Amino acid sequence: MAIILAITAAVTKIARGGRRRSATDPTCKMPPPPPVVNSIALLRLLPTLFRSGLPAILHELYTKFGSVFTINLAGLLKMTFLVGPEVSAHFFQGLESEISHGNLLEFTVPMFGKEIAHGVDSATRNEQARFFVDALKPARLRIHVDPMVQEVEDYFAKWGQHGTVDLRRELEQLLLLISGRCLLGKEVMGTMFDEVCNLFRDIEGGVNLMSVFFPYTPLIPSNRRRDMARKRLHAIFSDIVRSRKQREGDNVDKDVLQSLIDSRYKADGRATTEA
């Protein structure tokens, strides 16, 4: 399980740019290509897929082939997996010409929208990543320590002296409370916290094998729930953002949502939008 949690990327595609550079630069020594898992080997893993799911297959392939391996789906699609902390630096810091998601993360566009993440070009996506990094810097998060502690104390104060709980579900609920308090703002915590949590769960439920290959089809029930949840979340946070933009000075909240509202693109100075 620790190995699966350490997967830094489920799927990556080696871009052509890196191969061209090695062909023209004789001083650049390329390592041997990663081992290839062919279709026959994948068929043998089908029982594991149905019995234990995709993480179990990745664990088995990681154990057999190491941190980097390629899956070849009958020659129609080749996917190179980077698994484990030993390859995380290359995944996160590699040049766009050397390592790229290609269109393999297209399934995230219906989840988050066409205006952010993999719905935009890489330059805009990098700027948006900077917004989140700046908003989550330790210096900014320190002001939320007391509210975090308060949420934890209030939550566990409701527990009795003994009993049985679903620890995973309880900790998930606690993390949602902390996130809602420090990230989403008091508007969400005030009247619509339960609704927002359920909407986020519907979006999370939209990540499955069928939605990865068919992200836009409404025939998949989880896709329909995901799309309705995103539409409702868009309406909720659009109202909150518009309301906050009408405030001034000391009336402005200091949470992460406000940091994102105040962010500006370096290229042209434009502000973030409600989308």
From TrEMBL:
InterPro entries: CYP450_sterol_14alpha_dmase (IPR050529), Cyt_P450_sf (IPR036396). Keywords: Heme, Iron, Metal-binding. GO terms for biological process: sterol biosynthetic process. The keyword Iron applies. One of its GO terms (molecular function) is iron ion binding. This is Os05g0415900 protein. Belongs to the cytochrome P450 family.
